[in-house]
Structures are given as C-alpha cells and as structure tokens.
Amino acid sequence: MMVYVSVRGRIWLQAEAANMVESVGNYVKHRRVPVIVKEGGNYITFFVPSISGESIAHAYQAILAEELKKLNEKVCPLCEKGIFLKSTNAEVYKLVTKSEPPEKTKKEHTTPEKEIEEKIVVNCGVEDLGGFLYAEKPNVKRTSSFFTGYMIPVKEALKAVSIDPQLHSRYALGTKFVAVGEGERAAGQMIYYVEVSSAVFTFAFDLDTRFIGKHTFHMDSYGKIVEGLTQNNIKNRATAALNALQRLLVEFPIGAKRTRFNPADLRWESIAIAVSNDVFTLPSSFTQDYMLRGLQKKAKVSFNTMIFGYSEEECKADKCYTTPEEAIIEALKEAKGRI
Ligand SMILES: [Zn+2]
C-alpha cells in the first residue's frame, strides 16, 4: 500500500542566517530570490530572503539516514555521514555498492542500467528515497521520492521583509597569539558581517512512498521490486521516511549557522498535513487561504485523504489540534498505519 503525505505551512524564523550563498571578503550574503505579485492590476517584483529546497533536502536526508539505520536498513558510508554524493561516479559507486561498475567487469552485460539501479537501491536507503545520478556510462538516474522547494516570505509579509548585515568581531588582542613581531601590526580583531533576515516563511514538502525499493529507470523492470529487497525492507524504509519527516517538522533543523544564528523565534504559525492513498498535494501556503483551499480541493479530489491542521489563527482541516506537534504526530501516525 502506498501513502502520500503533503505538508504545507507557515513558519516564523526571526533573526535567521539559515541559507548563506557567498562571502565577498568578510561579508556573508543571505540567499535571495525574486518573487512577483499582482497589486491593483500591476505586477511587482520583490527580492526576498529565501531558504533553498536543497537546504531542506540536506536536513531531511541527514535525519533519514539515522532513521533508516535504527530500522536496520542499509545506508552507504557516505550518506550516513551526511555526505550526499549519491553514487555520482564510478569511485563513489564502488564505495556504495562494494562492487565494480558493470562497464568495468568482464561479464557480458545486456542490461547494465538494471544492475546499477539495483545495486545502489539495495545498498543505500537514502539513495533509494532521495534519488541519485550515476553520471558515467551508462547514465542511471533515480528521481527523489520527496519533493520540496524554496522557502520564501509569505505574501502578506513581502513588503515588510528586509535583510540586514550585522557586524561581528572576533577579538584576541592582548594574547600571545597575536603578539606582534618586528615591523608587524597587531591583527587581533577580525570583523565580519553576516546578513540576517526575519520573516514568516512558506514551507512545502511532499512524500510519495510508491516507488520505494522499486525500479524506476530500467524500462522493462519499471515498478518491480529490485532484487535483494523484500516487502519488509520496503515497509521499513517507508516507516523511516515518515519518522524522519516527523522529526524534520517537530525540530525543524533546517539551515546552516544554527550554532550562532539559531532563529530567535522558530514557530509554526500554521501547518497542514494531508495523508492520502494516492497523489494529493495541498495548495501553496504563500497565500493565507491555503488551508481553506486544501479542504475545497479535497471536496473535489480525494484518495481517502485526511487533512490534519494547526493554526494560531483559524484552523481549517479535517482534524484541528491545539499545538503543531500534535497535528504533526497524529498525521504521521495515520500515514504509518497505511503502509
Ligand atoms: Zn548513499
């Protein structure tokens, strides 16, 4: 049985530096994206702070690796350390699968794609779920089973959002480590700037368990369970994916610089989680009416869909809870019951 989980939410992040893109000298820039909105018949573009989908995917896969291992599912030596090279070339492939790539062996291969797909999927649950790209001959690609994207300030916040560079210094004058030699000047103070922003951000994450442990690349094997995995492995991997999603939403360990720029406020303003037996995505939380639109969509399209919600304002869902944690945990309990 497959289960599809769709999450949309709005989350407060105050004084965050979660996704930095480049440093120019001692100046570290926050990621920005253009966002266009319609106002009074005109279109206006804003450049706003954002957090990339890659950043969210990194945090999710790091937790996923841990959850897979708890259930004794295989994770490769790189993914388990948060290094997501994902079988990108022959050298990485050897480390992941503990075998030579088919093109390097003397065996006659009519279907090297099948073998490559099979070996990687069997040997690494993170790459099974999160996809990979084997960029050798032949190319073998696996699409991720989870979907996410840029977090941007919600529509009502666009005009109010700003990014500000904050001055910091590391001071070490007076210690022997910056003692000056002859003709040298003291350099005991290092100043640097970090751009911080504050906003209510959108959040989106969808998880489709349909292809876990199954071929999706080799055409003749499409949809078949890869050799070397059992139904039990697939169930474990789906459970690990849901456990990881729960931890991601409850703890929200997304973004860098969390040791010194941990957001001053990190709080779900609202969240909705739809659990379905087939593909059902919730509408974007960029606009405030997303919970209502979710219910309206469900009235027209439903795959035994159940929407769990929480809102600091008005919650619109099949089941509303008084805390975001309750909504998240109850939704994922329902999802786990369906696999
Ligand atoms: Zn891996």
TrEMBL record:
Keywords: Antiviral defense. The keyword Thylakoid does not apply. It holds the Pfam family DevR. InterPro entries: Cas7/Cst2/DevR_sub_I-a/Apern (IPR002764), CRISPR-assoc_Cas7/Cst2/DevR (IPR010154), CRISPR-Cas7/Cst2/DevR (IPR052681). It comes from the Archaea. One of its GO terms (biological process) is defense response to virus. NCBIfam families: cas_MJ0381, DevR_archaea. CRISPR (clustered regularly interspaced short palindromic repeat) is an adaptive immune system that provides protection against mobile genetic elements (viruses, transposable elements and conjugative plasmids). CRISPR clusters contain spacers, sequences complementary to antecedent mobile elements, and target invading nucleic acids. CRISPR clusters are transcribed and processed into CRISPR RNA (crRNA). PANTHER family: CRISPR-ASSOCIATED PROTEIN CAS7_CST2_DEVR, PTHR37459. This is Type I-A CRISPR-associated protein Cas7/Csa2.
